[in-house]
Amino acid sequence: MTFNDRASTLSLLTSRRSGKARDMVAPGPDADELAAMLAAAMRVPDHGKLAPWRFVVVAAGARAALEAALVESYTAEKPEAGRAELEAMRSFAHHAPCLIVLMARLREESHIPLWEQQLSVGAAAMQLLNAGHALGYVGNWLTGWPAYSEAVAARLGEAGERVAGFFFFGTAAKPLEERPRPEPGAVVRHWTG
Question: Is the pTM for the entire model greater than 0.90?
Fold first, then answer.
């Protein structure tokens, strides 16, 4: 890899930023691009080769079923939910052209510490976002109530899995806003012994 290639890769990484899922429009990743993004997300540090992550691709035709699952789970937990709350659940299921749910499958019985497994899940999340960005799409990692609902996790995953996040990908409908980033001096420290 030449210096220019390395500089270009670094520029790509430092230019990534999130877009709002509700503002994403088509096109989103096609089947080949989606496969490449998932392959990249699986190439993360994984002590013990546990693969503590799973990817649930929500097909366009399954968005209505996801909406029903979210509304049903939400009203079961919060029977007093108002119209605005339920509309938020409905619209959440339909954001962006592409939706991938990242599931964490931590192995408590393993000798690999849970913390290391969680870090691997986080690395898969970031790699997924970077891969989408490299292909020219905007991404958004969302959590909120659906990510913490055991009922939603049970509908989307397998026993013992929990939602690490909902990853939306598409094309930005409007220019992305840059958010303030920390100054290096505030978050970087050089230890000298």
Answer: yes
